[in-house]
Specification:
mainly alpha
Length: 82
């Protein structure tokens, strides 16, 4: 659903065109960190107090396919739960 008026979209696009590549990358990085923090919070709420390693594995399993999780980390997200 797109609820952003065209006038606002044009202002946003023009603003994005004016900022440097470094600023764009910084914004992407900040959004990525924010999404990871939200995911960590959900994992903690769902599974409680986990080791740092298991927290990172559970986070990775949200983006990495099961086959790669098994091959690289020997960790089955379906067995352990998402």
């Amino acid at each position: 659903m797109d609820d952003t008026p065209n006038k606002v979209k044009k202002v946003l696009i023009e603003g994005y065109r004016r900022i440097s590549i470094q600023q764009k990358l910084q914004q992407v990085n900040e959004l990525t960190v924010a999404v990871q923090k939200l995911a960590f919070a959900r994992i903690r709420q769902q599974y409680g107090n986990l080791s740092e390693r298991e927290m990172k594995l559970r986070l990775a399993s949200l983006w990495i396919p099961k086959e790669i999780m098994l091959k690289v980390f020997a960790w089955d997200p379906q067995e352990k739960g998402y």
